[in-house]
Amino acid sequence: MKLLGNLNWDVTPFSDAINDPSTNTFVAAGAASLVIIGAVSVLILLTWFRLWRPLWRDWLTSADHKRIGVMYIVLALVMLARGVAEGAVMRGHQAMALNGGPLSADHFSELFSTHGTIMILFVAMPLVTGLINIVVPLQIGARDMAFPVMNQVSLGLTAAGAALIMVSLVIGRFETGGWTAYPPYTGKVFSPGEGPDYWIWSVVPAGLGSMLSGINFAVTIYKCRAPGMTYMRMPLFTWTALCTAIMMIYAMPPVTVSSLMLALDRYAGFHFFSNDLGGNMMNYANIFWMFGHPEVYILVLPAYGVWSEVAATFSAKQLYGYVSLVTATMSIAVISFTVWLHHFFTMGQSASVNIAFGIATMIIAVPTGVKVYDWMATLWRGRIRMTVPVIYLTGFFILFVIGGLTGVILANPTIDYQVHNTLFLVAHFHNVLIPGVLFGMLAGIHYWFPKVFGFRLDETWGARAAGLWVVGFCLTFLPLYVLGLMGMPRRSPSFTDPAYLPMEYLAAFGAVVILGALAATFTTYIVSIRHRKWLAVPLGDPWDGRTLEWATPAPVPEWNFAVIPEVSSRDAFALEKEGGTPYAPVSRYADITLPRRTTMGLTVCVATTGTGFALVWHIWWLVILCFTGLLLTMIARAFATNTEQIIPAAEVARQHRRWLDAIAQNTGITRDAECTSANRGLAAPDEVIR
């Protein structure tokens, strides 16, 4: 047995570029170089600015739900940069793919496999999980998540999966079977290399981490709500988070189990999904899509929650149709588990089975339509301000409706037969997820950013980024509908029909615009940090918010609330402002108990990454070492006793009274001055329109 298993010097893209110099190998080597340069640059910057100690103390070992949420979002943004870059490379390749193209077929297949896996599991999921982490405890009046350390572990498991995907760009190759990794192609016979193993050991910990997050979110909402916060007084974002959490609990185990079954096929000679000895790959398709389609709504429901908050806040109105929105949210969560088979209408089921799932797929569009009409009714005759979140909302209204309508079209099995595996399907999928999820998450980040960091994001650069995302999406993905109807297959590394070229050129130009949108998004954060004093909103309510999170300072202290609020109505903070009593003094403060810092999540991340890497390359001694370390970490945590810290009442009172004094010394600003330096986070409320 070799000490390093299957590892050798020939598994890097640099070796390929030296031995077989070509555009294809240079692109691969260049991508690997960017990962290495990026990692080294981060290490140098942390050392140069002496940030290792605060990074360790305030972030990596913190159990604060807000900091964990921020780390989820940072992870997602890093992976977004890679995912968008890979998408742009694919669009550029296809624009030059008439009778060939710069990339090899395997390299192109690897790109669309990593792109899909990253964007679904390591961009969209961390964005959703991060935003829920930050917002939900604040909206329901809780101090933290129900299980703060498990929250940290969930992040560690997700980060481990993301780390393995990044490593696969430098050491070895990723799988080439798409983000779904269908066997038998990804089985040992057809794919004997390390690629499918990278996919398995990236997806398994991420799936487990997401399931644990779902449990944490659900228990937090069930058990940690403030007094008086009944279910029908919860903000819509919290409702969507609850339904998402329930879906995560039930939908994540199938992808984890199907991935482990595929691992048993590859490592232990099992035959769950092989072509012989009783194997049946359709079992994989069914199990995977039992996760795959609820996953779409796991991602989009929190975005629906964002749109509900944005529509009400930036129109200065009470949310229209609250009960119907709650009902629609619960309906979507239930129906989403009944539509998975529409992903493989063409795989041999009977017509009656296809019809049943087609009807279910059409039905799920109804509650979504209810939501769109409710948001439009909320905006109707409101005091609308065209801030960055509202720009994203406008793009969502137009583009998501198109994506939803094409979904209803694809719900018809006879039509699906004609366009299945064409670029029409690619256009539909992106038409739902980018306006529905990415726009929603970017709007949510802009909306709640002041709560976490104490200053607003720059509106000028934010608006530029939002505009570029909308235009870039239209130019990149709407032409794919045309190409799909012309019969161009998806995942094609080359083609022979020159009629595809005009739309391919337009899509490639759109990809350049999306790269500009990504750059503008990061520029927004950089400019905002540089101008944070001008953008500061320490008093905590920059948007004239309606829910409990806006009744706290910015940034929010670790304990969230000096005294747990008592809720007597929906939109409690808005009604307090309307009644002139939003910042009542506190007569009695008490000590607050919070979890201590812990290395549990970081240790789990490192050990899981090491275990996964060792399994990919068959380094069995390292598997044993890392897995043993993982077990010992959990056992040691079980025996830990000093796990809590006490914040003295005097310290809580000092900070809270200082904030109340600052509020008393300031004058609220109107919505006309919302995006100026006069906005310090104290709102002079508009008339509340019921």
UniProtKB/TrEMBL annotation:
Organism superkingdom: Bacteria
Keywords from the named record: Copper, Electron transport, Heme, Iron, Membrane, Metal-binding, Respiratory chain, Transmembrane, Transmembrane helix, Transport
Spans traversing the lipid bilayer: 26-49, 70-90, 118-141, 153-174, 198-222, 234-252, 287-307, 319-345, 351-370, 390-411, 423-449, 461-485, 505-527, 598-615
Pfam families: COX1
Domain Cytochrome oxidase subunit I profile: 50-568
Keyword Transport attached: yes
Family membership noted in the UniProt record: Belongs to the heme-copper respiratory oxidase family.
Name by which UniProt lists this protein: Cbb3-type cytochrome c oxidase subunit I
